[in-house]
Design brief:
By secondary structure, this protein is α+β, with helices and mostly antiparallel strands. It has 2 domains: 142 residues, Creatine Amidinohydrolase, Chain A, domain 1; 248 residues, Creatinase/methionine aminopeptidase superfamily (Creatine Amidinohydrolase, Alpha-Beta Complex), CATH 3.90.230. The chain contains 9 helices and 17 strands. The longest helix is centred in the middle third of the chain and has 31 residues.
C-alpha cells in the first residue's frame, strides 16, 4: 500500500532534490496513479482529484465535493472544490511551497507510458510557479519493483509457459501427422485451455501466426480470420500469462517452428540471426549486472547491432523488449532505442523481455523471446533453457 511507502517516497524525493510528487487523476487517464493510489477498478472517478506527496511533512489531497471520500483511504490534509474557480484556487494551495514537482510527465513525450499528465494541467501548474520533472525514475522504483513472492511466481509461470508452448507445437505436429485439420485459432484455444488447467491468467489471447501472419508482430487470430496450418508452413507462437493470485507478475515468451522435417535455408538463416541477437542482449546483461549500471537503450543497441550488421536492420521494426509486471507490459525500463530512447537504469527485483524479430511482410517473420529477472546479486534467464533451434514438427 502507498500509505506504508510514503516515508520511502519522501526519501527518494530528497535524493532527487524534488519538492513533491503529484498524482492527477481523472477517470482512467493515469494507470500508474490509479494503481499506486489504490483507485484501480473503481468505477466512479468522474471528477478530478489530486494527491501530493511533499518532500517532507503531511501529504495533501484535493477532491471534488461530489466525490469527497475519493482519497480518504490515504493520509493527508484534504482540500475540496466545487466550481472551476475554486479548482484553480485549490490547485495553487495544493502545490504551495513546491517548485520542482515530479508528475507522470515525459519531456516531448519521450516515454509515453509515463506521459499521462494533460497539457492543460501542466499549464495550470506552471502558472502556479511549478517546474515539472518527469516521474519516470520514481515510477520504476515504486511501481515496477517485484517482491520476492512476485519473483517466485514469475519463475513458476515461466516454467509453465515453456511446458505449454512445447505442448502446443506437439499438438500441431500430431494433427499434421494424422491429417486432421488445424488452424491458428485452434492452437490459440489449445493454449488458453492449458492456461486454465495450470491456473494461469492472461490479459489478452496468445499470438499464433503462420507464414505471412508470423510477419505481423501483433497479429491476433480469431475463429473468422484464422489461417489453416499445413505441412511446409512456418509457425510463430507468442504467449504470456501469470498466476491468478493477487499482484502476480507475468511471464512472456515466443517460440518458432517449421511444419516440416527441416527449415528452408532462408528460414534457418533468419532464425540463427534472431537467436544470436537475442543472446547478445542476454550476454550484455549477464556480464554487466550487478557490477555496472545498465540502461534500457544499451540493451536494445547490443541486440539491434547484430541484426543491422547482417543487413536486416530495416526488418527489425520494434523495440528489443519491455518491462514486465502485474501487467504484461510493466512500468519499468524498456529495452528500447528505436521507438523511444529509454535512458532509465535497470533496477534490482525487476524483470523484462528480450525479443528481437525480423519480419518479411507477405512471407514470414521470426521472433525469439526470453525473460530476464534481476536480483541484487545476479541476472537470470527465467523459465528454463531458451529455444536454441527451430522446432521441426515433421522430423
Amino acid at each position: 500500500m502507498l500509505e506504508a511507502r510514503i516515508a520511502e517516497i519522501q526519501s527518494a524525493l530528497e535524493e532527487a532534490e524534488l519538492d513533491g510528487w503529484l498524482f492527477a487523476v481523472f477517470q482512467g487517464n493515469d494507470p500508474i496513479a490509479l494503481d499506486l493510489l489504490g483507485l484501480a477498478g473503481r468505477g466512479l472517478v468522474t471528477r478530478r482529484c489530486y494527491y501530493l506527496i511533499p518532500r517532507a511533512g503531511e501529504p495533501r489531497r484535493l477532491v471534488h465535493d461530489l466525490e469527497p471520500a475519493m482519497l480518504d483511504h490515504l493520509p493527508g490534509a484534504k482540500l475540496r472544490y466545487r466550481t472551476w474557480q475554486e479548482h484553480r484556487q485549490a490547485m495553487e494551495q495544493l502545490v504551495r511551497d513546491c517548485r520542482r514537482v515530479a508528475a507522470q510527465y515525459s519531456p516531448k513525450n519521450e516515454l509515453p507510458s509515463v506521459s499521462r499528465l494533460d497539457a492543460g494541467t501542466a499549464e495550470l501548474l506552471a502558472a502556479s510557479g511549478v517546474e515539472l520533472v518527469t516521474s519516470a525514475d520514481l515510477v520504476q522504483r515504486f511501481a515496477a519493483v517485484w517482491t520476492p513472492e512476485q519473483l517466485a511466481g514469475h519463475r513458476r509461470a515461466n516454467r509453465e509457459l515453456h511446458r505449454i508452448v512445447r505442448e502446443a507445437f506437439g499438438f500441431v505436429a500430431a494433427r499434421l501427422r494424422s491429417g486432421e485439420a488445424i488452424d491458428e485459432h485452434g492452437v490459440q484455444t489449445f493454449i488458453l485451455e492449458a492456461f486454465a488447467r495450470a491456473g494461469l491468467h492472461t490479459e489478452a489471447d496468445p499470438i499464433v501466426g503462420v507464414n505471412a501472419h508470423s510477419a505481423d508482430p501483433h497479429y491476433e487470430p480469431t475463429a473468422e480470420t484464422a489461417w489453416p496450418i499445413a505441412a511446409g508452413d512456418f509457425l510463430l507462437v507468442d504467449l504470456w500469462a501469470k498466476e491468478q493470485a493477487a499482484a502476480s507478475v507475468y511471464a512472456d515468451i515466443t517460440w518458432c517452428g517449421v511444419c516440416a522435417a527441416a527449415p528452408t535455408d532462408r528460414q534457418q538463416e533468419i532464425w540463427e540471426l534472431v537467436r544470436d541477437a537475442r543472446d547478445a542482449g542476454v550476454r550484455l546483461v549477464l556480464e554487466r549486472w550487478p557490477r555496472e549500471s545498465i540502461r534500457g537503450f544499451e540493451v536494445d543497441d547490443a541486440v539491434r547491432e547484430v541484426i543491422r550488421s547482417a543487413g536486416y536492420g530495416d526488418f527489425f521494426i520494434h523495440r528489443t523488449g519491455h518491462s514486465i509486471g502485474v501487467q504484461d507490459h510493466g512500468q519499468g525500463a524498456n529495452m528500447d532505442n528505436l521507438e523511444t530512447h529509454d535512458t532509465r537504469s535497470l533496477l534490482a527485483m525487476t524483470g523484462f523481455s528480450i525479443e528481437p524479430g525480423v519480419y518479411f511482410p507477405g512471407e514470414f517473420g521470426v521472433r525469439s523471446e526470453v525473460n530476464l529477472a534481476l536480483t541484487a546479486d545476479a541476472a537470470e534467464v527465467t523459465g528454463g533453457e531458451p529455444q536454441r533451434e527451430l522446432l521441426r514438427l515433421l522430423a
